[in-house]
Amino acid sequence: VEDFDSWAVARTASLARTAFLLTADIHLAEDLLQETLIRVAQRWPQLRRRGTPDAWARRTMHHLAIDRWRRRKARPEELPTSVFPEAGARDEAEQAVGRIVLRDALRQLTPRQRAMVSLRFYDDLTEAQAAAVLGCSVSTVKSETRRALQRLRELVPDAVASFQESR
Amino acid sequence: MKDVRERLEDLVADIPDRMVPDIAAARSLGDRRRRVRRVAVVGAAGAVAALALVATSFVSLPRETEPTDNNSGEGVGGYPLRVEEPLWPRSLPEASGPLAGLIEVGEREWMGFTDGGDVHRLDFVNSRSGNYPSLSPDGTHVAYVDDDYLVAVRDLVSGDVVRFPNVSGGQEVGGATLFWTAQSPAAWSPDGTRLLVSGGDLGDGPARTVMLGTDGSAIPVRYGDNPAGWLDDDRAILVSDNGAELRTIDREGDLVDGVVLRGLDRGGALNQFSPLVSVDGDTLLLSRIDDHYVAETERWDLATGRRLEGSATTRNVNTWCPSSITPSTITFSTRPSGDALHVEVMGGGTLVVVDPSLEPSCVMLASDALTAGPRPSLVDRLLDGVGLGSSSTPDLRDNWIAWHWREVALSVLAVSLWWLRRRLRRSTADD
Q1: Measuring CA to CA, which of A81, B149, B219, B356 is 20 to 30 A from A118?
Q2: Do A37 and B33 touch (CB under 8 A)?
Q3: DSSP 8-class letter at B317
Q4: Residue in A closest to B37 by C-alpha
Q5: Above 0.90 for ipTM, yes or no?
Q6: A99 pLDDT exceeds 50?
Q7: Chain A residues 98-157 with CB within 8 Å of chain B
Q8: Which chain B residues are closer than 8 Å to A165 by Cβ?
Q9: Which of B330, B388, B365 is nearest to B79 (CA)?
Q10: Of A89-98, A149-158, B96-105, which one has max mean pLDDT?
Q11: What 3 state SS string does B234-272 have?
């Protein structure tokens, strides 16, 4: 049975990508990933016994992302800057612009909508699986996903023209 | 055009290279949070256990100060629906405050209980004398025979004791010239300053009754045989042995008036503690108890001596117990089922239930407590909430769980603590 450190090393890359999709911000994603790892470490004995650390970590990360957004509702909105220092210098210009536009569009979704996009189109979960992760109904998954895609189409019509609602 | 997944993958392609979480710190902080959580859980369980014990003790332990909410010395404010055996029985404090009632437990031991249901031992009562202690109407005074076999009256509010050196519990002791007959009725005046007891001269004198005053006076009374009660603060009723003639005396023991009961059936044995005058002074109640412990109570108009219509039947009556008086009726100590003792109003209807663990045989209540009505405790309300209380149908106040809720609660708590400890050990072993 693997220990926590081995599990974390093996899953960090995947969790980091999901964290970024959920926050659309590299610094927030770092915080989210670290807190998720702490939560997993806190419950590691039980999770190891049950054999479900991956699913629990993913569910916790989504909940933490939504919770964070709820807590921040009373605070001033973060203002996106025109400079994106985290953008990779080695990207070509077109690719870089495309990423920035998509990331900016993701930022304008609600955390729950970002979670839908991440779970459905990046993690390839079914509607039922996504509903189980987020603790909501399948119909909620459907409606939130539809709204998320509609919003993305409005924000980046050329980049997401091929987004399909039905999967 | 890339599809969604490809665009998302492209967006996060280099994220892992730019995010390096501190795994060691995450593990360390996670471990610390787990330890804190365990300590918090166990601490909370311990706190709950402590609270339960304190609450249980508070409900059961006699308080050293005023046991009732009524600390102005005005008297008892009601009666409890249930009298439960205390976990740690204690003696009644000297200045305890008024009591709602008295219980005979075991072999002639006596205990008192407050309107809140707190039970105290009455160590000052001589249980060997055979005399039943008697509680004043307002519950602030109790008359009894002390360890010297002399009659005494204790003020429960101040703790003062008035002894009657010339009145014994029936024994020839010291300078006693009068006596109070064992297992016989006593009748307090409404104002609680006079007490009529069966008894008389220790020799062959004419007195058949003794009037005691809380000021220490003792007046032999030659009229009548059984003190039945008081019409008001100044006039008492005595009944002849055959129950046919009533005599009214004043506070000095002098004869004032006499009435013959008309239509009295002379057959059958009167209850040992019958007759009784109702609190309102209007009615005389005569009870006969047959061999099947069924009491038949008839009512008589004290002004005219005429019998009033109707009678009341009470079953499973303990024949050797004094009755208590309410404004218009009397109560009996009954044992309708099981070992729990009930106080029932004549004709049926349970007022108080006494814990069978006390081995109770008789319960007597202060008349003011009966007049004031029941005072449900927190436990009574909880029992009502789960359908075991007095307002439930059927009344399950003497259900097993109703008497053993503390043991059940402590068992549940112990099992919870054991489970938490086992879980803690398992988690530690896993770590």
Answers
A1: A81
A2: no
A3: B
A4: A42
A5: no
A6: yes
A7: 98-99, 102-103, 106, 117-118, 121-122, 124
A8: none
A9: B365
A10: B96-105
A11: CCEEEECCCCCEEEEECCCCCEEEEEECECCCCCCCECC
Buried b (16+ CB within 10 A) or exposed e, B379-390: bbeebbeeebbb
Place of tokens 């993690």: A123
CB contact under 8 A, B30 and A88: no
How far is Cα B55 from Cα B274, in angstroms, rounded to an integer? 42
Q: Using CA coordinates, name the residue in chain B closest to A17.
A: B12
Partner residues linked to B423 by β-bridges: none
Which DSSP string corresponds to A25-72? -HHHHHHHHHHHHHHHHHTHHHHHHHT-HHHHHHHHHHHHHHHHHHHG
Higher pLDDT, B304 or A37: A37
Each residue's pLDDT tens digit, B343-369 = 988 888 889 999 998 999 899 999 999
Residues of chain B where predicted confidence (pLDDT) is lower than 50: 1, 60-72
Look at residue A34 in the predicted model and tell me its pLDDT. 93
The residue with greater pLDDT, B252 or A74, is B252
pTM over 0.80: no
Residues 6+ apart with CB under 8 A from B120: B62, B67, B89, B90, B91, B92, B93, B96, B99, B111, B112, B113, B114
Touching B: A residues 26-85, CB under 8 Å: 26, 29-30, 33-34, 37-45, 48-49
pLDDT at B55: 62
